[in-house]
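Title: Comparing notes on inverse folding

I've been comparing how different people in this forum approach sequence design from structure. To keep things fair, I'm posting one structure and asking everyone to reply with a full sequence. Here's the target:
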């Protein structure tokens, strides 16, 4: 039985910089840090040969973000400005309660955004039920900010209380 999504993973050329961004700016908390090299079991799991990396697991609410900095095999740089229409994972979405405040705060902390201000979308049959905007983290990965204004929408996060 699949219970849900546990984490999203990002490979980065600068683990310390990306950890600082997602903890100090976004607000994730570190929950685990490790590294490996010459570990055949890990190589089998990740389907690589001779892998070596540093890894940090971060948490926000019930979701985790796993960050890797591989030193072996030699990573291939991601295409800068990757188009969200390209095949593969396209973005990480953060659910927020005040999108205008988060947009301003993250802009002041170096995150770049595709437009300003955040848009108001018609989702589920009515106007003004969702506000969203795409931005990019320090590595150029797309991060969406989303504020669900109508909690009756089927994809609205439910308060765990």
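Reply #1:
Here's my take.
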């Amino acid at each position: 039985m699949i219970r849900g999504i546990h984490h999203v993973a990002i490979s980065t050329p600068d683990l310390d910089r990306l950890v600082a961004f997602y903890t100090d700016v976004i607000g994730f908390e570190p929950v685990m840090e490790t590294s490996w090299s010459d570990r055949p079991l890990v190589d089998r799991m990740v389907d690589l040969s001779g892998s070596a990396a540093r890894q940090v697991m971060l948490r926000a609410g019930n979701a985790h973000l796993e960050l890797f900095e591989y030193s072996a095999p030699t990573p291939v740089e991601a295409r800068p400005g990757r188009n969200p229409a390209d095949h593969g994972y396209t973005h990480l979405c953060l659910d927020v309660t005040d999108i205008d405040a988060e947009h301003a705060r993250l802009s002041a902390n170096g995150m770049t955004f595709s437009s300003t201000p955040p848009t108001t979308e018609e989702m589920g049959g009515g106007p003004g039920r969702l506000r969203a905007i795409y931005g990019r983290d320090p590595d150029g990965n797309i991060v969406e900010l989303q504020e669900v204004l109508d909690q009756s929408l089927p994809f609205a996060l439910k308060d765990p209380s």
